[in-house]
Amino acid sequence: MSITFVPVSKVNGQVEVEDILAAVCPATCLVTIMLANNETGVIMPISEISQRIKALNQKRVASGLPVILLHTDAAQALGKRHVDVEDLGVDFLTIVGHKFYGPRIGALYVRGLGELTPLYPMLFGGGQERNFRPGTENTPMIAGLGKAAELVTRNCEAYEAHMRDVRDYLEERLEAEFGRVVLAQCRTLLASVGAACHSDHADRPSPVLLSCGIPFDVARNALRLSVGRSNTRAEVDLIVQDLKQAVAQLEGQA
Questions:
Q1: What is the 3-state secondary structure (H, E, C) of 28-53?
Q2: Which of 48, 97, 98, 226 could form a disulfide with 145 if both were Cys (CB 3.0 to 4.6 A apart)?
Q3: Cα(162)–Cα(156) distance, rounded to whole angstroms?
Q4: Rounded CA gap, 99 and 226, in Å?
Q5: Quick count: other Cβ atoms within 10 Å of Cβ 175?
């Protein structure tokens, strides 16, 4: 078994549909792409990729080749924008509760489990979760995930509109990008210079930004800011003021 990594465009940070198709070989059985990047916020063209793969699968079946299944990691998208497996056309979709104000538990959507889409257990023992994952279920977290998903389904349009408004206002107020040195001087702002899942390499620039064609020195000084449901424009004003004071303090030390 081999894995092919497809680079993103250095123009817009998206993976190109044609590059995905060009990477397909006779033995290809799965394509997996995140729906929204956790550092850049770029939305990947999953629906278009799905349509092209479905068309390709018709030819592959006629030639006796394996069907290609499509998986997307929607962890960063759910709760911030509309996510519908039918619109996306995926076979597998991953979600994580704490990304949309739920408990730290995940779930995997499988289209036509056992009929249209194969899925095999990695662990064996008890018969929980339809024999796919043995062990006593974490009922409180499962219920919490369901409730969080219910709130998102009911309020997604309002959540998205609010976060988009605050995000756009933040971009308007920020006059420049600030790096890791500035963070140490801030008194109000809590931010990061990369993803938490790569915190063991905090001294290195983000590989995501580098793969998008961002110069090394710029990537090393990039600041990652996110907004949530409860953030306001007034808080954005506090952040900008905090950053200005941090920069002024650093300039005074230079």
A1: CCEEEEECECCCCCCECCHHHHHHHH
A2: 97
A3: 10
A4: 12
A5: 9
State the residue for tokens 């998102």. 152
Q: Quick one: CA dihedral 175, 218, 215, 170, positive or negative?
A: negative
φ/ψ of 233, rounded to 5, equals -65, -35
Please give the Cα distance from 147 to 133 (Å, whole number): 22
Q: What domains appear along the chain, each with residue ranges and CATH number?
A: 17-137 (3.40.640.10), 156-252 (3.90.1150.10)
Q: Are strands 30-34 and 106-110 parallel, antiparallel or unpaired?
A: unpaired
Contact by Cβ (8 Å): 88, 69:
no
* Mean pLDDT estimate for the chain: 86
Query: Pairing state of beta strands 69-73 and 92-96?
Result: parallel
What DSSP string describes 228-242?
-TT--HHHHHHHHHH
29 is catalytic: no
Question: Distance (Å, rounded) from C-alpha 129 to C-alpha 120?
Answer: 12
The answer, as to whether pTM is greater than 0.70, is: yes
For residues 160 and 214, give the distance between their C-alpha atoms in angstroms, rounded to a whole number.
28
> What is the arithmetic mean of pLDDT over 139-164?
94
- Sheet order of strands, 106-110 included: 30-34, 69-73, 92-96, 106-110
Among the listed residues 29, 156, 186, 197, the single catalytic one is 197
Q: What is the DSSP string of 121-162?
A: -SS-SS-TGGGTS-S---HHHHHHHHHHHHHHHHHHHHHHHH
Q: What pLDDT, on a 0 to 100 scale, did the predictor assign at position 224? A: 77
